[in-house]
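For the sake of clarity, the format in which proteins appear in this thesis is described at this point. The fold follows as a row of integers, each naming the local backbone shape at the matching residue. One such record is shown here in full, so that the layout can be seen directly:
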Amino acid sequence: MLENYLPVIIFIGIAAVVGVAPVLLGMILAPSRPGVEKDAPYECGFEPFEDARMQFDVRYYLVAILFIIFDLEIAFLFPWAVVFPGLGWPPLIAMGVFLGLLTIGFIYEWKKGALEWE
């Protein structure tokens, strides 16, 4: 039974080595020359002028929700589209309801002005 999981275990081991090795090599081989300019916060090429804990406009969160809506749509739509020829009417109706709900969410954000930037 272990021979079934051996390729997966090897893959996880290789992934761990590939993920950890560059970080360790960078920590070991990189020169460490700390300084005032290197330790300063960097923001678009100039000194930060506000506190990092400032409040964001609610439109930022509306755009984030919009991204999640379309991300979920694609994540569910691709597998469904691959097996579509073998499906009948019930999955087609279910996907229509799903896309309809996402469209309602999109229209809600559109009406709230989430897509308009000042």
The first helix runs from residue 2 to 29. The two ends are 61 Å apart (CA to CA).
